[in-house]
Amino acid sequence: MQHQNINEELLKKNRVPKTILIAEDDSINVLLLKKILVPLNFNLVIAENGVEAVEKFKEADYDLILMDVYMPEMDGLEAIRQIKALNLKTPPIIIISAANLDERVISEDLGVKYFLSKPIGLMEFKELLNRLL
């Protein structure tokens, strides 16, 4: 429990609120991410598909992108390709099912270094946030 408190303290000490673009079509997953991130002082922008994620990325600067792979209209991998073409400096985290190793290999080919497996492990997620932000 103390390890969790240390991570939360590190995250809460954000000097300036950070903004995260979340591309996720599953409303339950979005709710879960909000419950984790809002208390840690993150500003969240939600996109329900890859097309919307690319458009929102063009409109503002983000400190981090959380991108689901399977979404309607445009999948997360294609959205990352298009965002990278816009000169991506924002680190993306790809959210994948633990069983879908093919998506991880493709993501790595795109230069993605960070992954979260569903179901998202709270401690792993917070440690990754600490490392990236």
Radius of gyration: 14 Å
How many beta-strand segments?
5
Specify the CATH architecture: 3-Layer(aba) Sandwich
**Cα-to-Cα separation, first versus last residue:** 22 Å
Biggest sheet overview: 5 strands, parallel
The CATH homology group name? Response regulator
Low-confidence stretches: none
Q: Based on CA inertia axes, which overall geometry fits?
A: globular
Beta-strand level of the residues, as a percent range? 15-25%
Describe the structure in your own words.
The structure is a single chain. The chain has helices at residues 2-12, 27-37, 50-59, 76-85, 101-109, 122-132, and strands at residues 19-23, 43-47, 64-68, 92-97, 114-118. By secondary structure, the chain is an alpha/beta fold. The protein has a single domain (19-132), classed as 3-Layer(aba) Sandwich (Rossmann fold), CATH 3.40.50. The chain has a 5-stranded parallel sheet, sandwiched between helices. α1 runs parallel beside α6 and α3 runs parallel beside α4. The model has no long low-confidence stretch (mean pLDDT 82).
How is this structure best summarized?
With 133 residues, the chain is an alpha/beta fold. It contains six helices and five strands, in the order αβαβαβαβαβα.
